[in-house]
């Protein structure tokens, strides 16, 4: 109810009078916009024409009243006829003089805004241009009259003339000049704070000239006396194209003023141009002081979208030099002898089965070569498909896979492993245009296809991924590749990881980035990586709760998904007092969920399935891995909710069927060779290799960057038995210190709303939610009712005091 009330009182004046619905009509706006643009051009032409024709037309205008002025006999000389002559006469001569040109300019802008050709803040422009017009009118009446005295109109129009004379009579000519100067400075300062500097420099010209220092650019590639530091910035992808490190050293006087009060960013890719007014930007990556989260709260400029990276704008994504480069990286090694031998063998084997070939073409990938065969006329593909096993057997090589036919082509593919297998380095994948320029929300660069193309998918679209394969075939490396690609693209405010590792060894390497990139349930245990089964259950339940509360926030914001929600948030369309916060994507990675299902069964399976079913819209995505691809682990429920599948080598065809619903994974060669399925046909991909030292370096780099001081706190999960336990199960020492006060506020106001608690105590949404849960446990408020406030079960303060005493 409270939320509804807030929304109702929010109606703007234009909504109340119904103007908003008219303004929202796109077609009307478009037509009206075009009319305005044309009208503004017409008026400008009329104004210009007035300079030469005004003298003649003015005498006719003065002889007639406005309704008589119809240019029946072509008396008016203005290019825009009698109407143009009259409008020009009125606005230029009678009103604002030369500054009247601002009127059609504004009309044109309004028209372009309505047509939606430009995004213009019309109200702001209206006030600025109006002030400018009045000022220029007065100033030109005073300053230009001596020059344009002979003209038929005063350069400031009647308005300017009247105002300047009136002011001059009161304050004299110097007073008038002072007023004009003062208003100009105030107005320009309002438009740009740079004005202050300009005025300071004008007032102290000597200091300005002596204080200016030169700047220079130092190309570290030429002179290696400074440590090279290529920087991958979040929003400047050009670094990938030009990894040559450049340190730019800028120096100037105006160091103390940063742009619009925002913290200065370290951007080593900024180009140095002229020496005028360039700010100092020094790359101090790695040793910056940690900012304080309270920095954000002061920012109120609604015309500038909120920077989602605030307050950690100095955070830089890991650099490419942290990754290892390999010999022959990205260039497949082609052994012609091997290729010819393979070709001859294939032709021979196929001929022996009575299959004639028209052409054969080889595509050499990093670990596998694809032979694409066009059968001779009359050979049925089904015949080859039936011979699949025999052909594979005759070619007698591990990892042969026959694709008959290659989807979308009338050809047959035979995949044969190369003798020498190249490693696909993570560096070669991340240092690619595909990855660098991707617009994906959660890009995961997995590896290279057989045709040496970078294989990338958007986890946000998948939306969940199941990884399976026998032990030692590259699963853990695959999970690391997924996490690494996300870390190379995402800012800590945009992504949080929940790492679950029952094996206890795989993810411990990520502990250093807990503060920046992890989310955890509140508890005494500081360990950010979850290894214990009970904590896994708690975390998954907590994620379910977070999912529900995110849905509530989306509903309140009128957004359909996290992307829309965050867009609204950065554009100031959400009320912060309603508890809105920028929502990071949450990626849950579970290595070996088979162990978990075996120990906790449904308690694990149910929340996983629930999150998988519903969490896509609220930005929670799961990557779950198992080395036991059996139907008891990968249940129908799990399978149905994990459309993305990554299959590494398995030992039996049945396992391949469990993962991919078809054979294939049993024919892989291991060491990162995999089949990726998302839709119809699986794609064979060589997974990118990222080694432990590389991950350590990346994590150290991230840990040294400015960023959050704590892991993100997930909401306190609802325990299965909490509903029935009532207040009897409450432990007072575990309660939030604000519990008693919050209880009192809720009872006195008879409002069980989380956002009210949040506002009242100026606390975050998570803490307020936790308080509300404790109030529910204590029997003070009822259960959650979607986005409605909860029912308050205690009616007055006396009953509350009795209850609190009982709890103690
Ligand atoms: N993409 C890859 N490129 C090259 N070699 C790889 C790749 N992936 C894995 N390997 C090799 O295979 C070994 C085992 O890989 P990994 O540890 O990822 O297997 P796993 O399936 O996770 O095994 P387990 O289930 O026992 O943890 C690695 O140490 C590495 O030598």
Automatic annotation (TrEMBL):
Cellular-component GO terms for this entry: plasma membrane
Domain FtsK residue range list: 451-657
| Keyword entries, A-Z | ATP-binding, Cell cycle, Cell division, Cell membrane, Chromosome partition, DNA-binding, Membrane, Nucleotide-binding, Transmembrane, Transmembrane helix
Which GO MF term does the entry hold, naming one?
ATP binding
**What does the record say about its membrane topology?**
Multi-pass membrane protein
What does the UniProt entry say about where the protein is found?
Cell membrane
Q: Compositional bias of type Low complexity: which residue ranges? A: 706-717
* Gene Ontology annotations of biological process type: cell division; chromosome segregation
Organism superkingdom: Bacteria
Q: Principal localization? A: membrane
**InterPro entries linked:** FtsK/SpoIIIE/SftA, FtsK_4TM, FtsK_alpha, FtsK_dom, Ftsk_gamma, P-loop_NTPase, WH-like_DNA-bd_sf, WH_DNA-bd_sf
Family annotation (SMART domains): Ftsk_gamma (SM00843)
Region Disordered: list its residue ranges: 253-273, 706-729
Annotated binding of ATP, by residue = 469-476
Name the residues that span the membrane: 27-51, 86-110, 122-141, 171-191
Question: What Pfam families does its record include?
Answer: FtsK_4TM, FtsK_alpha, FtsK_gamma, FtsK_SpoIIIE
* Family statement drawn from the similarity comment of this UniProt entry: Belongs to the FtsK/SpoIIIE/SftA family.
Q: What is this protein called?
A: DNA translocase FtsK 4TM domain-containing protein
Q: Which organism is it from?
A: Marseilla massiliensis
């Amino acid at each position: 109810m409270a939320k509804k009330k807030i929304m109702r009182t929010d109606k703007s004046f234009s909504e109340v009078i119904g103007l908003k619905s008219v303004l929202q009509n796109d077609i009307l706006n478009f037509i009206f916009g075009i009319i305005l643009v044309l009208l503004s051009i017409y008026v400008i032409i009329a104004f210009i024409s007035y300079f030469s024709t005004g003298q003649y037309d003015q005498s006719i205008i003065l002889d007639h009243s406005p309704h008589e002025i119809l240019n029946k006999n072509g008396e008016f000389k203005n290019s825009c006829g009698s109407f143009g002559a009259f409008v020009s006469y009125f606005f230029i001569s009678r009103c604002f003089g030369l500054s009247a040109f601002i009127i059609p300019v504004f009309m044109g802008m309004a028209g372009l805004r309505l047509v939606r050709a430009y995004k213009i803040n019309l109200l702001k422009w209206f006030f600025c241009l109006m002030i400018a017009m009045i000022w220029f009118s007065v100033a030109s009446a005073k300053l230009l009259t001596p020059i344009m005295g002979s003209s038929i109109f005063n350069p400031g129009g009647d308005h300017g003339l009247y105002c300047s004379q009136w002011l001059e009579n009161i304050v004299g000519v110097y007073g008038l000049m002072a007023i004009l100067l003062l208003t100009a400075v105030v107005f320009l300062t309002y438009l740009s704070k740079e004005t202050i500097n300009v005025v300071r420099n004008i007032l102290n010209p000597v200091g300005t000239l002596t204080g200016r220092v030169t700047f220079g650019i130092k190309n570290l590639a030429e002179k290696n006396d400074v440590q090279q530091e290529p920087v991958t910035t979040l929003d400047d992808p050009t670094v990938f194209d030009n990894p040559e490190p450049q340190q730019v050293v800028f120096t100037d006087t105006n160091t103390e003023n940063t742009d619009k009060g925002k913290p200065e960013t370290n951007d080593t890719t900024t180009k140095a141009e002229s020496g005028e007014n360039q700010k100092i930007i020094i790359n101090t990556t790695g040793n910056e002081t940690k900012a304080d989260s309270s920095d954000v709260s002061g920012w109120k400029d609604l015309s500038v979208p909120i920077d989602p990276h605030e307050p950690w704008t100095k955070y830089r994504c890991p650099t490419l030099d942290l990754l290892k480069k390999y010999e022959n990286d990205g260039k497949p090694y082609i052994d012609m002898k091997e290729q010819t031998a393979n070709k001859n063998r294939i032709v021979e084997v196929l001929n022996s089965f009575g299959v004639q070939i028209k052409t054969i073409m080889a595509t050499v990938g990093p670990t596998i070569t694809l032979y694409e065969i066009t059968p001779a006329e009359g050979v049925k593909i089904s015949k080859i498909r039936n011979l699949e096993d025999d052909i594979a057997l005759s070619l007698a090589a591990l990892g042969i896979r026959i694709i008959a036919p290659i989807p979308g082509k009338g050809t047959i593919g035979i995949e044969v492993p190369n003798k020498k297998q190249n490693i696909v380095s993570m560096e070669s994948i991340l240092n690619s245009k595909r990855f660098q320029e991707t617009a994906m929300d959660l890009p995961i660069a997995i590896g290279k296809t057989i045709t040496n193309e970078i294989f990338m998918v958007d986890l946000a679209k998948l939306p969940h991924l199941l990884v399976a394969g026998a032990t030692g075939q590259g699963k853990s490396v695959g999970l690391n590749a997924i996490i690494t690609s996300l870390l190379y693209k995402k800012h800590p405010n945009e992504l949080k990881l929940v790492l679950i590792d029952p094996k206890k060894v795989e993810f411990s390497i990520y502990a250093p980035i807990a503060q920046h990139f992890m989310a955890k349930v509140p508890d005494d245990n500081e360990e950010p990586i979850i290894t214990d089964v009970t904590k896994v259950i708690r975390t998954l339940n907590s994620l379910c709760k977070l999912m529900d509360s995110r849905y509530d926030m989306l509903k309140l914001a009128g957004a359909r998904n996290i992307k829309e929600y965050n867009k609204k948030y950065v554009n100031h369309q959400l009320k912060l007092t309603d508890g809105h916060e920028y929502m990071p994507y949450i990626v849950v990675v579970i290595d070996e969920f088979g162990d978990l299902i075996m120990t906790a069964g449904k308690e694990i399976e149910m929340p996983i399935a629930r999150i998988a079913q519903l969490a896509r819209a609220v930005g929670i995505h799961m990557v779950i891995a198992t080395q036991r691809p059996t139907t008891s682990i990968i249940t129908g429920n799990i399978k149905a909710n994990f459309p993305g599948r990554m299959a590494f080598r398995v030992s039996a065809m049945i396992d391949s069927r469990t993962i991919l619903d078809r054979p294939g994974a049993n024919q892989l060669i291991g060491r990162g060779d995999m089949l990726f399925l998302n839709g119809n046909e699986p794609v064979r991909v060589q997974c990118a290799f990222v080694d432990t030292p590389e991950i350590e370096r990346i994590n150290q780099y991230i840990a040294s960057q400015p960023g959050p001081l704590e892991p993100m706190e997930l909401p306190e999960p609802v325990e299965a038995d909490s509903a029935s336990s009532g207040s009897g199960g409450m432990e007072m020492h575990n309660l939030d210190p604000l519990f008693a006060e919050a209880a009192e506020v809720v009872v006195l106001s008879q409002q069980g709303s989380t956002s009210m608690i949040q506002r009242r105590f100026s606390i975050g949404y998570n803490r307020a939610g936790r308080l509300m849960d404790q109030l529910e446990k204590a029997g003070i408020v009822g259960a959650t009712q979607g986005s409605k406030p909860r029912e308050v079960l205690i009616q007055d303060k006396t009953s509350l005091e009795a209850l609190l005493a009982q709890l103690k």
